Amino acid sequence: MSQLQHGPVRWALASVVTLLVGLAFLPRSTAGQAAPTKYWQSQLEFGLNGASGNSSFSILRGGFTAKRVKTDEYELDFRTLVRYGKNDEKVIANDVKASLKFDWRPLERFSPFVFVDAARDRIRRLDFQANGGAGMKWTVSEDDRRSLSLSWAGIFDYQNFDPPEGSTAEGSELLGRSSFRLKLEQKLGERAKFEHVSFYQPAFSEIADYVVEVTNSLSSSVLGNLTMVVEYLYLRDSRPPPGAETDDQKYSVLFRYAF
Predict the structure, then answer these.
(1) Rounded to whole angstroms, how far apart are CA atoms 13 and 196?
(2) Is residue 163 classed as helix, strand or coil in its secondary structure?
């Protein structure tokens, strides 16, 4: 762990900021009063994967989520995620992402939504990415055990690259895309849950320019509000930033605490 010097400092500072934001959503004391209706659900997450000896690597992950509980009116969802890691002296993970999503009438079969995302991924040579848009969600089925939904959105996608030395590629790109999403949540017994989320985002101008993102996760309650999660992320960008690979895969084992 002595190899992680400057990176963890930045990661720790980002985690402190994330924690402070999370604390801002904690309910105020209501001693002596009737328990108020809880409109917000918040969640902190932390993960540390590593090894030493013949191979040495460490990956830190931290995040915060605040979500307005579903009502007949609207749903608001804010998320942040920070990852940093090294393999010997080589940085193998260095990315940050934040997103904000607003759903109108989320309990209806069809519900409109708007969203905006911002991200940075040094490993993929992505200095800054911002995308946002609006669309419609179709809740195919939903009950106490299972939820399935499909959605479509029209989005803008802006990317600012860090091209390798000597590259003649342009340093930024702005595209319009369609975004198709499939989301499935399935309870497995009383303590475990499986979640699948997949995106397909072709460009309006050329269908061969597309992004596919698939996330599968399995979570299980450990103690009270503490949950352990195993997550797999697959990302394919048919036109990646200059100097980056087309495919990315990320594996995470982490803990989440809801409050």
Answers:
(1) 31
(2) coil
